[in-house]
């Protein structure tokens, strides 16, 4: 069996494919992370395929773990630069099987072998070392465990050695000088700027892409309805300027005003419109500090110039048929308002990538709450509208060849001397590299002084860089961009071109530099919005740029939790979700983009997540107001999900109910008054029933609202006819208890004493007098109806299709103690405050096991259990104190299968926050018997039993990785 602390143990062979919560890349990383030697044999290796493994290869180098990699010149696919990069890794021995130098055979192997002691983890299948194969393509690979003496292991190793030592195989150092002059890059389709990713028709007329066509259809629909304003929300790099140009081509305005905040952006927008329209009869002009073409048909102006009174007076209020405002999230400023108030266009179009505001300004109201189209980062990546990015969160330090312990030596990256800091940055940018012939990078710094000093230090190290701040003129900025991109006067003049521009925030938004292939962040993450703006500088597609490298030098900041918040796009503000993203982002992020955090960066972000108050009144209120502004009215409960806002259950948990929250924040647009009994009922349904975990409770409430009688009979029929579920006798009793508040611990029973929804009516039940009276209030009835709809939707989307056969639980969903006991249909008043690890309930023959994984070091010895996964299908769990092989609960676990006892496993990370009371459900489990158990003595001196359980379902890769390593 594998060492539980190292190599992952797979009890059977398994399929490794790209899909939900898993991919080939993560499987290879798992193997590398746990091995003491590795072998890779693949036909094809791409720059991005190698890049995403560089963090773990660097880690292995530091631990002295070496590997052999065999590839080929087959079909001339492999770029010599990639082979050179791979060959320079200190812990890698690289050889190349030559098919064009005498061999009569092609070479198309795809195998990954990881050795740990006497055991091997072997992945063989269809995946080369390319990012598409590792993350996106439909791939089939088999992962198996095997002992060194097994026939399978011997055959795989013998086959590898045959090619490794073949007469046609060359060492990398000998092969590359021969191969490089013979290699020519294949004629692959170039990647263009997203704005240029259009279909060319017979007339060479530019046509919109899919996203742009959807926007245009919605835009035309708004105009058809005689709406006069609309908002386009479009992720950075997805081509919103071109989308606007295509829409204007349909609209055909006689005169148009395009407002921006910088002259450079006005010039870029003008060029985009000229390309789309290709109409010589239209005149175009710039109005800015340096150019003033007032009489043009289509005017592209800076806001600063157009906002001046003397400039405004040069136009009549109705001169422009359409006005477009770029980066319109700035529109709350007085200068913007002056322009908007003056002009009376037929249509006002606003465009932004980040409409969320923290200054209280209602941007959505400005555009009459008409969202023409919205596409966020995750959707854009999934639809391949953006250049893939590879993000590396970096905090590890190596100085003079020595790894520095951040915690013990009290050193942080920002506190290093200037020379050490610059060397550190250069080491990383060279190691992770870039896509394309040369680097074209942006470096975001904390302040102007830092930008200037770092630029000067880079220049001393023979880089070509410049620092830009808000103090620099437009001409200086444009010249620097031309030098960076090698365009204009600098095209072909290598000595004048720049490698990097160091800046603070002037490139956060608006400036379009598609050529950027590396973004370096050397500042604190102040908000998810700014983070995405800066990340977005590299996301535009461009020729000779297959991906962009993002290097984020993470400091010891208390708000570093914003990084996973920004990258994931998740707005539920769930700490566990953020932790899982930090640990397993590669398994989750769409497309071929990847996310990597080094060990120290993970530790820092986990610490920031642990201490952050993500259920604070401030966060909840800001999320609510942003949604309210977007809609133009008090949101309904379902709107929070529909518009991707905060998980409304956070409101339920903190404020009892949505109604109570609205009262607490004193929303002037909410004027509902309820009785204490009605508020108590809303509290009960919001927290106990609207979770959607059990559909029968919600169906019963729905029937009560509809005025039906014989509730239990009707629910039974509905469950059977529409849901294929049966209501057992215990379930019937449980349902009655739930709706009459007989299933609660004593404190909850008191809190919800008036929550009696049904009462006996002959042989069945009907609506209670107290609930019927409460429903006479239409506002209360509306709240109940919305809660029922919300709960039913959660059941259908989160639980219905994930509930395992013969269980009431959905795999990988989270439950607390009370919910587990309810779903197992334990009788009233049998919900313990703390189950203490597990509890066998004889009447229902159910046995839930609860495990806190990775307990804190300071936890008291008496409960310091060493529960641990041996593999995704095997877990060791320690019994309660003072137990032996003859203890009743231990015997029941041993004999569960023969006694028809249903055992279920629930696991949580042991984090002290508001979500820690919930456990992931990992499925049914079975004891492997007394022969695999042992009696032990705990550190406290008490006796206990270590049991081994087998899981019916292997834990999904992302959940397993998070639990084990997070």
TrEMBL record:
This is NgoFVII family restriction endonuclease. The keyword Hydrolase applies. GO terms for cellular component: cytosol. It comes from the Bacteria. InterPro entries: DUF3427, DUF8090, Helicase/UvrB_N, Helicase_ATP-bd, Helicase_C-like, Helicase_Restrict-Modif_Enz, P-loop_NTPase, PLD-like_dom. Residues 421-586 form the Helicase C-terminal domain. The keyword Nuclease applies. It comes from Veillonella tobetsuensis. Signal peptide: none annotated. Residues 221-373 form the Helicase ATP-binding domain.
């Amino acid at each position: 069996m594998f060492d539980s602390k190292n190599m992952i143990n797979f009890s059977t062979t398994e399929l490794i494919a790209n899909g939900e919560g898993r991919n080939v890349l993560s499987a290879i990383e798992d193997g590398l992370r746990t091995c003491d030697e590795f072998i890779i044999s693949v036909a094809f290796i791409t720059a991005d395929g190698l890049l995403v493994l560089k963090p773990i290869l660097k880690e292995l180098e530091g631990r002295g773990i070496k590997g052999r990699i065999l590839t080929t010149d087959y079909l001339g696919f492999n770029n010599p630069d990639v082979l050179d990069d791979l060959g320079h890794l200190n812990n890698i021995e690289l050889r190349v099987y030559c098919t064009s130098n005498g061999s009569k055979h092609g070479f198309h192997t795809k195998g990954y072998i990881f050795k740990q002691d006497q055991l091997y983890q072997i992945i063989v299948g269809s995946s080369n070392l390319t990012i598409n194969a590792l993350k996106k393509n439909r791939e089939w690979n088999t992962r198996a465990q095997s002992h060194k003496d097994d026939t399978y292991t011997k055959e795989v190793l013998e086959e590898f050695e045959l090619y490794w030592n073949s007469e046609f195989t060359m060492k990398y150092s000998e092969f590359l000088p021969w191969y490089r002059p013979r290699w020519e890059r294949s004629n692959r389709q170039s990647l263009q700027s997203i704005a240029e990713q259009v279909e060319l028709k017979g007339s060479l007329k530019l046509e919109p892409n899919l996203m742009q066509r959807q926007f245009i259809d919605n835009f035309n629909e708004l105009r058809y309805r005689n709406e006069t304003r609309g908002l386009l929300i479009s992720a950075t790099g997805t081509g919103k300027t071109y989308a606007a140009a295509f829409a204007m081509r349909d609209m055909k305005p006689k005169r148009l005003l395009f407002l921006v905040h910088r002259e450079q952006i006005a010039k870029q927008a003008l060029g985009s419109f000229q390309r789309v329209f290709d109409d010589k009869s239209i005149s175009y002009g710039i109005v800015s500090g340096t150019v003033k073409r007032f009489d043009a048909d289509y005017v592209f102006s800076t806001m600063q110039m157009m906002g001046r009174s003397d400039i405004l007076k040069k136009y009549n209020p109705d001169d422009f048929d359409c006005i477009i405002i770029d980066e319109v999230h700035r529109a709350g400023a007085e200068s913007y308002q002056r322009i908007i108030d003056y002009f009376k266009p037929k249509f006002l179009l606003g465009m932004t990538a980040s409409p969320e505001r923290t200054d209280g300004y209602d941007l959505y109201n400005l555009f009459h709450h008409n969202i023409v189209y919205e596409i966020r980062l995750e959707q854009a990546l999934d639809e391949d509208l953006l250049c893939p990015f590879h993000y590396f969160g970096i905090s590890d330090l190596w100085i003079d060849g020595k790894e520095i312990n951040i915690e013990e030596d009290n050193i942080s990256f920002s506190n290093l001397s200037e020379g050490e800091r610059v060397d550190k940055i250069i080491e990383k940018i060279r190691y992770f590299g870039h896509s394309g012939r040369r680097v074209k990078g942006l470096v975001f710094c904390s302040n102007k002084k830092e930008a200037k000093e770092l630029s000067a230090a880079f220049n001393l190290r023979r880089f070509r860089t410049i620092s830009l701040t808000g103090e620099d003129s437009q001409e200086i900025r444009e010249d620097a961009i031309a030098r960076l991109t090698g365009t204009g006067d600098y095209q072909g003049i290598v000595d004048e071109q720049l490698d990097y521009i160091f800046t603070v925030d002037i490139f956060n938004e608006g400036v379009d530099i598609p050529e950027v292939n590396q973004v370096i962040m050397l500042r604190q993450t102040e908000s998810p919005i700014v983070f995405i703006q800066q990340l977005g500088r590299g996301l535009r597609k461009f020729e000779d740029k297959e991906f962009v490298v993002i290097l984020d030098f993470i400091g010891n900041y208390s708000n570093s939790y914003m990084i996973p918040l920004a990258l994931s796009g998740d707005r539920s503000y769930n700490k566990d979700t953020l932790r899982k993203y930090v640990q397993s982002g590669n398994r989750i992020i769409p497309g071929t983009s990847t996310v990597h955090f080094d060990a120290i960066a993970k530790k820092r972000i986990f610490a920031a997540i642990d201490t952050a108050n993500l259920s604070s009144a401030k966060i909840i209120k800001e999320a609510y107001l942003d949604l309210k502004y977007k809609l133009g009215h008090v949101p309904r409960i379902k709107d929070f999900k529909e518009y991707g806002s905060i998980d409304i259950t956070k409101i339920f948990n903190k404020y009892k109910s949505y109604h109570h929250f609205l009262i607490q924040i004193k929303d002037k647009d909410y004027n509902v008054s309820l009785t204490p009994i009605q508020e108590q009922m809303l509290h009960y349904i919001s927290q106990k029933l609207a979770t959607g975990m059990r559909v029968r409770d919600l169906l019963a409430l729905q029937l009560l609202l509809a005025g039906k009688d014989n509730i239990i009979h009707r629910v039974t029929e509905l469950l059977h006819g529409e849901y294929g579920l049966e209501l057992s006798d215990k379930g019937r009793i449980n349902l009655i208890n739930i709706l009459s508040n007989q299933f609660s611990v004593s404190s909850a029973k008191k809190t919800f004493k008036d929550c009696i929804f049904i009462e006996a009516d002959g042989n069945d039940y009907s609506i209670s007098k107290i609930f019927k009276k409460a429903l006479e209030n239409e506002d209360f009835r509306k709240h109940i109806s919305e809660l029922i709809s919300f709960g039913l939707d959660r059941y259908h989307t989160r639980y219905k299709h994930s509930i395992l056969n013969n269980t009431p639980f959905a795999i990988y969903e989270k439950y607390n103690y009370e919910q587990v006991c309810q779903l197992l249909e334990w009788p009233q008043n049998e919900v313990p405050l703390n189950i203490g690890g597990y509890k066998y309930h004889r009447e229902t023959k159910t046995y839930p096991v609860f495990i806190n994984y990775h307990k804190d070091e300071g936890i008291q010895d008496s409960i310091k259990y060493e529960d641990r996964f041996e593999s995704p299908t095997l877990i060791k769990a320690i019994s309660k104190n003072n137990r032996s092989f003859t203890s009743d609960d231990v015997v029941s676990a041993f004999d569960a299968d023969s006694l028809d006892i249903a055992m279920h496993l629930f696991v949580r990370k042991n984090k002290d926050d508001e979500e820690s009371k919930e456990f992931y459900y990992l499925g049914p489990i079975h004891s492997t018997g007394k022969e695999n158990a042992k009696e032990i003595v705990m550190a406290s001196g008490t006796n206990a039993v270590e049991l081994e359980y087998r899981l019916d379902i292997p834990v999904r890769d992302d959940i397993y990785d998070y639990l084990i390593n997070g």
